[in-house]
Amino acid sequence: MERKKVQIDINEYPESFHEFLKDATIYDSSCSKEARVIFIDEGDGYYLKKAVKGSLKTEAELTAYFHKKGLATEVLAYESADFDYFLTRKVQGEDCVHHTYLENPKRLCETTATLLRKLHEEDFSDCPVDRMKTYFETVETNYRKEVFDNSLFTQKWQIGNRDETKAFADKNRHLLKSDVLLHGDYCLPNIMLNNWEFSAFIDLGNGGIGDRHIDLFWGIWTVYFNFKTNKYDDYFMDAYGRDKIDEEKLRLIAAMEAFG
Ligand SMILES: Nc1ncnc2c1ncn2[C@@H]1O[C@H](COP(=O)(O)OP(=O)(O)O)[C@@H](O)[C@H]1O
Ligand SMILES: [Mg+2]
Questions:
Q1: What does the pLDDT look like over 154-194, one tens digit per residue?
Q2: 203 CA to middle of ligand 1, Å?
């Protein structure tokens, strides 16, 4: 991720964070409009995420859960005030959009697919979050709000208009299982590697117990998005293991994500 040096107004953050922020060099590391992520270059380094009140609660809970399993960074603070604030310790290495990784697409596919399969084999019996519940709720809510975009994934998954897509999703949603621990947003900027070795998963706000095809869908999509080709899909699916992939379920996820 590109990090840009920025000046911040310390008063835009609650007092409990001032000891980290004062006198530190700050870089912007945001990836989306929904949250502001800053890197605090002080000591071992910290990341502070700020977003709409309530929106980082699940992320804080799941990051702590993944940390216990050695799969995520340490959560140093979560505070819900005027906004939500989430402070983590910097993890070693770089995320997967770093040029070292993008220069080797096949190895990147194999690495991220293998890591995903390993994640999906983790024990999740004490996981606090049921992802399928919120996943289905989002489809319903956004269908009613007329949020729909069927152009997002046309390079691979063809789906119909809004009503056809909703009917297809409703008819088949019972096929989706709750049988793995999901990352929930399995995209290249959310996977940290240290010289090709796994370092940590980040951005876990959509994780929890759910169907593996959600992560598989985004894992394949993110490679397409970064390299603008589908020619690496097979590397990804072979490395994950075709025995566990149902391609029709990937189309079902595309249908549901059109309401995402
Ligand atoms: N604890 C951390 N250690 C190292 N890098 C981090 C950490 N947290 C965030 N980042 C970096 O900041 C970027 C944005 O953070 P992320 O939580 O994914 O926010 P967003 O919701 O904007 O995608 C990540 O892609 C990663 O490069
Ligand atoms: Mg992210």
A1: 778 888 999 999 999 999 999 999 999 999 999 999 999 99
A2: 7
Q: Which CATH architecture has domain 4-89?
A: 2-Layer Sandwich (3.30)
pTM, entire model: 0.96
Active site residue 44: no
Span(s) in the chain for CATH 3.30.200.20? 4-89
* Given the residues 44, 95, 126, 185, the one annotated as active site: 185
Helices 247-257 and 162-172 pack at an angle, to 10 degrees, of 130
Backbone phi and psi for residue 206, each to the nearest 5 degrees, phi listed first = -110, 15
Ligand 1 pocket test target in 202, 225, 226 with most atoms within 8 Å of CB: 202
Residue nearest to atom 22 of ligand 1 (CA): 31
- Distance between CA 21 and CA 253 in Å, rounded? 41
